Amino acid sequence: MSRRRPLVVLARVSVLVLAVAAAWTTAAWVRFRAEPLLVVGNVPEVYPRRTSTLSANVSGTLHRRVSEALYRLNGGAWTPVPHGGPRADPPLFSLELSRDALRTGENELEFAARAAFHPDEHAAVTFRYDPSPVVLPVERDWQDASLEVQDGLWESALVDGEWRVRPVPGLEGYDRILLVTGAFPGGRRIETDVIYRYPEKWSRPEYIFGVLTLWSGHGTDWTHLPRAGYRFALACYWTKPGGAGSEVSVYRPGEDAVFVNTYRSLPLEPGRKHHVVAEVVPERDADGTLLRWTQRVKWWLDGEPEPEAWQMLSDDEGCPLTDDEYAVALLVYRCQVDFGPVRVTALPDG
User: Fold this and answer.
1) What is the pLDDT of residue 15?
2) Contact indicator for 211, 328 with CB cutoff of 8 Å
3) DSSP string, 63-126
4) H or E element in which residue 265 lies
5) Could you read off the pLDDT of 284-306 as tens digits, one per residue?
6) How far apart are CA 268 and CA 336, in angstroms?
7) Whole-angstrom Cα distance, residue 242 to residue 268?
8) What is the pTM of this model?
9) Per-residue pLDDT reduced to its tens digit, 215-227
10) For the CA atoms of 46, 49, 50, 55, what is the dihedral angle to 10 degrees?
């Protein structure tokens, strides 16, 4: 009798383990069926003026078990939701709507998602497209939660009593881009402030943040989505040179990136506010032909006097930009920062 007791105990333990495992599995499936398959992120009420390369983007998240996610615009054909690659690393997706696909005025965007053992999901959002010229000045104080995101997910947050804007914490990563304006021609002055918080948890010790003073969008190659090209002027802090400054860069898929830049050493203290002022203007000859884009930038710590000297950079030093309309945007790469109010004003051509 005593020899059989361990077997009885073992059998009872095995039954208990199986019962616990079955209960846990059932609870996990119940939770899964209650979880959303697709969550649409930031969609503004109005998308302002686009160009052929600056798309109207919609970002969001996909559940890891999603087997199919589709979208359609204004009752068109159902199309797979683009995701994957550096711009839309899991769980993100990045949907790019071309200017030609948008209707002036009201637009409807529908989504459908499915996964095994989960009810199919459907969602729809509406927005307006306004192709009229952008009117400056543009001022954003971030109390309005209507954000226009090019990449990643962003949020407005009340930080130390001040409304600021930042990538959603925990979803830092590759380029996180937030538009401040639609596309417009000519010179512009951008004023803002930024506070660096911490690097992305799993990143290499290289990160960038700043203002895209000229942002063209992700290029003309629509064969691979999300697209990979770019054309920009940037006022930023970059850990690689260990400082703040200016950069101009152009990249077309299949070619090497072309860039010129200038930086100066700037100690970076987490939690300290830096003020940023950038001015960029097109310089033209007597016939109005573009000669060059010239950018000048200042960075300084809050509480210190604004420096008199500017950091200067021109695209004709090796990376010419086109004579086009450009948006203004905020950029965060593999770190967490938050930006204060942004003011964009017009400057005359040089």
Assistant:
1) 52
2) yes
3) -TT-SEEEEEETT---EEPPB-SGGG-TTEEEEEE-GGGPPSEEEEEEEEEEETTEEEEEEEEE
4) strand 258-265
5) 999 999 999 999 999 999 999 99
6) 13
7) 9
8) 0.90
9) 999 988 888 888 8
10) -20
Please give the share of the chain, as a percent, with pLDDT higher than 70.
Answer: 90
* Burial of 184 (C-beta count, 10 Å sphere; 0-12/13-18/19+): buried
Neighbours of 201 (CB within 10 A): 10
Question: What distance in Å separates the CA atoms of residue 322 and residue 55, rounded to the nearest whole number?
Answer: 18
Please count the helices (runs of H) and the strands (runs of E) in the chain.
Answer: 1, 24
Taking only the tens place, the pLDDT of each residue in 29-48 is 556 557 899 999 989 999 99
All residues at 6 or more sequence positions from 156 whose CB lies less than 8 Å from its CB, including other chains: 142, 143, 144, 145, 147, 163, 164, 165
CATH of 138-347, one of 2.40.50.140, 2.130.10.10, 3.30.530.20, 2.60.120.560: 2.60.120.560
Cis peptide before 226 (omega within 30 of 0): yes
CATH number of 38-129: 2.60.40.10
**Residues 6 or more apart whose Cβ sits within 8 Å of residue 238:** 206, 207, 208, 244, 245, 247, 263
Listing DSSP states for 215-234 in one string gives E--S-S--SSSS---EEEEE
User: CA 32 to CA 23: how far, in whole Å?
Assistant: 14
In the chain, what are the domain boundaries? 38-129, 138-347
